[in-house]
Design brief:
14% strand, alpha+beta, binds manganese (II) ion, L-fuculose-1-phosphate Aldolase, globular, 244 residues
């Protein structure tokens, strides 16, 4: 790998551990990172808390390993390849089953919208992916092939998060750290929205507030990244990797 791909891989291993530590991922769910326009890294089929550098596999946009296989792979790897294919600017993808986002995916009358300044990115939309529209009402809800992955990517459109009814959510970012940030704060936004929604009329951020807050907060991602690495008991950054 190139030097920049090595740094991306390091962040990707950390992201696996961080998302597991904060219970956004458990035995299931996964996070990937793009290393070239037509390549991305994703762990072999493994619980994210157990992922190490040597578990990362290089994939092409068809979601098949570049080296031809021999790996036990995630069934839902097509989520990643198809989103990278449809969104050239996306650098990282997290697919989770976190409960607040699952709940929001069930409520037709209550769309996920930004309720606080940490989640301004949600203002660009949080569309709902309904697998029944693509594959009927008898599936296991998993994104098992490229056709389903392409349908999910189409539902995501230009948004940062797509809710998957009865399943989970997928969040994208320009890089690993932003995708992790958005995964954490989309879930917290969902929990706040759910906890307040039964008590009265909700006040959402205006589009201008959401955009301004997104710019201000996401410029500071390296600060929470250091905290998250520490909380997940990851080793101290090597000298010279100042922003890790
Ligand atoms: Mn899943």
């Amino acid at each position: 790998m190139t030097e920049s791909a090595e740094l991306i891989a390091t962040d990707l291993v950390d992201a696996n551990r961080i998302l597991a530590h904060f219970r956004l991922l458990d035995a299931f769910g996964h996070v990937s990172a793009r290393t070239a326009p037509d390549r991305f890294l994703l762990s072999r089929n493994l619980a994210p808390a157990l992922v190490t550098y040597s578990d990362l596999v290089e994939y092409a946009l068809d979601s098949e390993p570049v080296d031809g296989g021999g790996h036990h792979q995630y069934l839902e790897r097509f989520i990643h390849g198809e989103i990278y294919r449809h969104r050239p600017e996306v650098g990282a993808v997290v697919h989770s089953h976190s409960p607040g986002l699952v709940a929001m995916g069930l409520l037709r009358g209550l769309p996920l919208k930004p309720v606080w300044h940490m989640a301004g990115f949600i203002a660009r939309g949080a569309p709902l992916f309904e697998i029944r529209n693509t594959a009927g009402d008898g599936t296991d809800l998993l994104i098992r092939d490229g056709r389903l992955g392409a349908s999910l990517a189409a539902a995501l459109g230009s948004a940062s998060v797509v809710l998957m009814r009865g399943h989970g959510a997928t969040v994208v970012g320009k890089d690993v750290r932003q995708a992790v940030y958005r995964c954490l704060y989309a879930e917290q936004n969902a929990q706040i929205q759910l906890s307040a929604s039964g008590l009265g009329e909700l006040q959402y951020l205006t589009p201008a507030e959401a955009a301004a807050a997104e710019t201000a907060v996401e410029a500071q991602i390296d600060r929470p990244w250091r905290l998250w690495r520490s909380a997940a008991l990851l080793p101290a950054s090597p000298p010279g990797n100042a922003d890790a």
